[in-house]
Amino acid sequence: MGTAAGLGDGFSDNGDGSYTASSAAGISYRILRDAEAYYPEEARSLGYSATVSVTGRVLVGTDGGIESVRILTDAPNLGFRQAAEEAFWRMRFAPIVYQGYPIKLWFEKTLIFQP
C-alpha cells in the first residue's frame, strides 16, 4: 500500500474520502461490542471437549460495522469456524478517524473456545 493523503504507508484510498488501514497498529479504536466465543453445540453433542482457538481478520467499516470476515486458522470441523464467523460479524466499533480522515481498519483477533 502506498501513501494516501499524507497518512503514511499502510493506507489505501477508497475513492470516497475514506481510507483503509492495513492493520490496527498505531491507530486508536474503541470496541463497542466485542466478539464472544460460544462453544458450538455440534462439538458438545459429540462429546468434543478440547479448547480451540480461532483467529480471524475483520474489516471495520467507517461506521464501525463489520464489512468482511476472514478466518485465518484451521479448526476442527465441528462448528468452530461458523461460530467464530458469527461472533466476528456481531462486533461493533466506534467510527474510526485517523488524522482527521474516516478510515476502515483491518483488525485481527483470536477467539478461545472453552468447553
Describe this structure in words.
With 115 residues, this protein is mostly beta strands. Helix content is 13%, strand content 36%. The protein contains 2 helices and 8 strands, in the order βββαββαβββ. The strands form 2 sheets. Strands 1, 2, 4, 5, 7 and 8 form a 6-stranded mixed sheet that branches.
What Rg is obtained from the alpha carbons, in whole angstroms?
A: 16 Å
The succession of helices and strands, N to C, reads EEEHEEHEEE
- Low-confidence runs (pLDDT<50, min 5 residues)? none
Number of strands: 8
Question: Level of helix content?
Answer: 10-25%
| End-to-end separation | 41 Å
Shape: elongated
Structural class: mainly beta
What number is the mean pLDDT? 91
Tag the structure with descriptive keywords.
115 residues; mainly beta; 6-stranded mixed β-sheet; two-stranded antiparallel ribbon; 8 strands; 36% strand; elongated
Write the layout of secondary structure elements.
Blueprint: E1 11-13, E2 19-21, E3 31-33, H1 41-45, E4 52-60, E5 66-71, H2 80-89, E6 92-93, E7 97-98, E8 101-113
Parallel strand pairs: 2-8
Antiparallel strand pairs: 1-2, 3-6, 4-5, 4-8, 7-8
Gist of the model:
By secondary structure, the chain is mainly β. The protein contains 2 helices and 8 strands, in the order E-E-E-H-E-E-H-E-E-E. Strands 1, 2, 4, 5, 7 and 8 form a 6-stranded mixed β-sheet that branches. Strands 3-6 form a two-stranded antiparallel ribbon.
